[in-house]
Amino acid sequence: METDRKKSHLRLVKSEKLLKNAERIEQELLEELEKIEEVEFLLLSGPPDWTVAIDKRAPMEVRLRLLAAVKSCTMGSRSMDHLLRKYRVAWEKKLTAED
After folding, report:
1. Residue 11: pLDDT above 70?
2. What is the C-alpha to C-alpha distance for residues 1 and 84, in angstroms, rounded to an integer?
3. What is the distance between the alpha carbons of residues 45 and 25, in angstroms, rounded to a whole number?
4. Residues 24-34: pLDDT tens digits?
5. How many CB atoms lie within 10 A of CB 34?
């Protein structure tokens, strides 16, 4: 194995264009962070499951799928489909009541 050779494909690139892109991306992220601070969250699950919160504006289908995914992980299941089919109606009633 050769270790003496320089790796020509690894080199530091300094560019004004990259710096401007980084500054633009940083500004976009800061703007997104400000928006997140204005969001109301709904707690979907807690102990003994993973604690999961979701934006209150999220559609019911997204809430149900996320809840099924968390429950299936807690139970050690590889699929969330069975849980979603079995508990959809009950979870939907509970989540609707919490709104």
Report:
1. no
2. 53
3. 33
4. 888 888 887 77
5. 9
